[in-house]
Amino acid sequence: MGCSSSKNTRNMVVKPRFLETQTPIDSPDKLPIRPGTFIFHKTSSLMKDYELGPILGQGAYGSVRTAVHKLTNQERAIKTVKKDKLTKDMQAHSKFFAEIDILRRIDHPNILKLFEFYEDNKSYHLVTEIIKGGELFDYIVGTGNITENIAMGFMKQILFAVNYCHKLGIVHRDLKPENLLLERKSSDGNLKVIDFGASTLFEGDKVLKNKYGTSYYIAPEVLKRSYNEKCDIWSCGVIMFVLLSGRPPFTGKNDEEIFEKIAKGSFSLMSQEWANVSEVAKDLLKKMLEYNPDLRYSAEQALNDPWFKTSPPQSPKSLPSIINNMKSFHASEKLQHAVLTFITSQLSSKEETKNLGDIFKSIDTNGDGKLSRDELFQEFRKTMSYEEAEDEVNRILNCVDMDMNGFIDYSEFLISTMKKESLISKKNLETAFKMFDKDGSGYISASELKSILGENVKSPNNVWMEIISKVDKDGDGEISVAEFKDMMMKIFADSA
Fold first, then answer.
1. Which helix (H) or strand (E) holds 68?
2. Residues 6+ away with beta carbon under 8 Å from 67
3. d(Cα 491, Cα 493) in Å, to the nearest integer?
4. CB 202 within 8 A of CB 171
5. Catalytic residue numbers, as ranges
6. In a domain, 478, yes or no
7. Do 91 and 217 have their domain in common?
8. In 309-436, which ranges are E strands?
9. Is 270 within a domain?
10. Where are the beta strands (DSSP E) in 120-208?
11. Which residues are paired to 78 by β-bridges?
12. Taking a C-beta distance cutoff of 8 angstroms, is the pair 121, 210 a contact?
């Protein structure tokens, strides 16, 4: 097969704004499949699905603790926010739901993954991946001396994430080493941006006015309450300054003194700790800490700065085999796409996706967090003729671009490159079937498909019946477990 507003919010169920936008479709071919589709808002008991572990941290609004997902045995982190705390501060309440909104949109190897969120009478619970290497802040303090090459590795990952967010119209507004976690305590550890509670969406020339951020890292224009996404670049510049010198550029006895210095914007690179830092690194710093945001670097410009060219990128050793996996990927049915997206985004482990993030970023030459037709073509052109590479890229985009945005996003890349034996394991297929079979009848109906995949679209019933009919071999109008497994195993047959 080929690829062709009430004041009392204590007990109300609130949906993020992202769920409210509906796109009309009239055929299965037009149905977009995204990882965010499977980030469900649940009102059932958290403990029905999770074994709760120790608390990792406690704050004014709630706590973060470890937990193990009972069905998959995967360890995750749960951020719990008390409703009675949020109702005292509606600004914080809106920030909380903005975080869910934004994390549902995001699909990037350097940004924390949200799995699902729960609501009960007393609390909201965000279930995310667990990151065990600690804060970048702690790594800086514990290491003491970070070489320029190590700083470069960290900064590249941060800017990858920021560039991706900015391209999506998301500004973080609270970038700092405490909001950057390492998957392992290592100079080459994968880094994740967390805490999107202060984030917001921006469009074009829209001016943002609310003051968010942390004293050392806040941009001068934020203090003036007139700013755009370039405030994140200023914060990145401060982080780079800290990585290279061990201290922030603007200090003081209290926030007021720090803000006064930031408002002036002058800093020095002449002290002793800068003696061994390259001039090209200092030049990049100046461009990110440019006082005038109109003249300040964008994230994309920063990633293309000569500093990052001083250490030439190395292609991961497993890249050729990964490309071969992409070439052999075949899935044509819409439900196959949906199941693969669910498995990849919800069930795959860090071990199964190890190194794939680095490979993804090595192909993503402009650092925007997605693979374009040209980027794929340049990679395939290394081992193919022009015509062969063009045909293969067209086929892969038709097969893998499940949200139909013209690019291969990170989860789509994982789907097409992971080992099919682990992706379509017996356990994964059984878990996926149970997720689609919402009433536990042993069959998947058109209405169940619509309730899961159609929450974000307007569609007639025949769209869902058409998806069912392509898998429903006995013609009873539903999909049995056997029909479901046969459909997924065809991916193996078609890849042979």
1. strand 62-69
2. 50, 51, 52, 53, 75, 76, 77, 78, 127
3. 6
4. yes
5. 174
6. no
7. no
8. none
9. yes
10. 123-129, 170-171, 180-182, 191-193, 200-201
11. 65, 127
12. no
123 lies in the same domain as 95? yes
- CA quadruple 413, 431, 336, 101: dihedral sign: negative
Residue 254 counted as domain residue: yes
Provide the token pair at 446: 């058109």
| pLDDT of amino acid 5 | 34
Given this model, what pLDDT does residue 189 score?
83
Tokens of 203: 């469009």
Q: CA 98, 346, 422 angle in degrees (round to 5)? A: 155
Query: In order along the chain (496 residues), what is the average pLDDT of each group of 10 residues?
Result: 40 43 81 91 92 89 91 91 73 70 93 94 93 90 85 96 97 96 87 92 90 94 97 98 94 95 94 94 98 97 94 66 78 89 91 87 94 94 91 91 94 90 89 94 95 86 94 95 93 60
Claim to verify: residue 142 and residue 276 sit in the same structural domain: yes
First to last CA, the chain: 11
Does residue 360 lie in a domain region? Answer: no
Distances (CA, A) of 161 to 107, 226, 366, 382, 403: 10, 24, 12, 27, 20
Burial pattern 279-304, b for ≥16 Cβ within 10 A else e, equals: eebeebbebbbbeebeebbbbeebbb
Question: How far apart are the C-alpha atoms of 135 and 112, rounded to whole Å?
Answer: 13
Residues 49 and 158 occupy one common structural domain = no
In whole angstroms, give the CA distance from residue 439 to residue 435: 9
Residues 6 or more apart in contact with residue 476 via CB below 8 angstroms: none
Residue 165 has φ and ψ, to the nearest 5°, of -60, -45
Q: Structural domain tally of the chain?
A: 2
Cβ contact 437:443 at 8 Å: yes
CB proximity list for 160: less than 8 A, separation 6 or greater: 108, 110, 303, 361, 364, 367, 369
- Binding-site annotation: residue ranges for ATP: 83
Does the pTM exceed 0.85?
A: yes
Q: Which domain holds residue 172?
A: 136-309
pLDDT of residue 91: 56
